[in-house]
Amino acid sequence: MSSPEIASLSWGQMKVKGCSTVYKDCKVWPGGSRTWDWRETGTNHSPGVQPADLEEVVKKGAKTVVIGRGMSEALQVPPSTVDYLKKNGIDVRVLQTEKAVEEYNALAAQGVRVGGVFHSTC
């Protein structure tokens, strides 16, 4: 399965190619996507993205994970989260969301088994 292209991004809205849902925050992986609901893991801007937010993306086969920290990079990514990915042999990229989407789409276009979590507001 290939990683789906992120078709569009604007403040508070993301669309993934092949999916009719408009996401505020989303998770993508080889073969799919869904809403990233922070309430599932108790995620907040600080301390930020937790390993639990990424487990699904890793289990669905991503070998590279891109984390979009928001348009103004308000979403934190603690070292423990990066360490979790690296310990699982996953390459990780942490970027401002617009740059993260560009990186994700470039990797997906190259056939990389890439996944990610993206915050589309602050």
UniProtKB/TrEMBL annotation:
<comment type="similarity">
    <text>Belongs to the AAMDC family.</text>
</comment>
<dbReference type="Pfam" id="PF04430">
    <property type="entry name" value="DUF498"/>
</dbReference>
<dbReference type="GO" id="GO:0045600">
    <property type="term" value="P:positive regulation of fat cell differentiation"/>
</dbReference>
<keyword id="KW-0963">Cytoplasm</keyword>
<dbReference type="InterPro" id="IPR036748">
    <property type="entry name" value="MTH938-like_sf"/>
</dbReference>
<dbReference type="GO" id="GO:0005737">
    <property type="term" value="C:cytoplasm"/>
</dbReference>
<dbReference type="InterPro" id="IPR007523">
    <property type="entry name" value="NDUFAF3/AAMDC"/>
</dbReference>
<protein>
    <recommendedName>
        <fullName>Mth938 domain-containing protein</fullName>
    </recommendedName>
</protein>
<dbReference type="InterPro" id="IPR034096">
    <property type="entry name" value="AAMDC"/>
</dbReference>
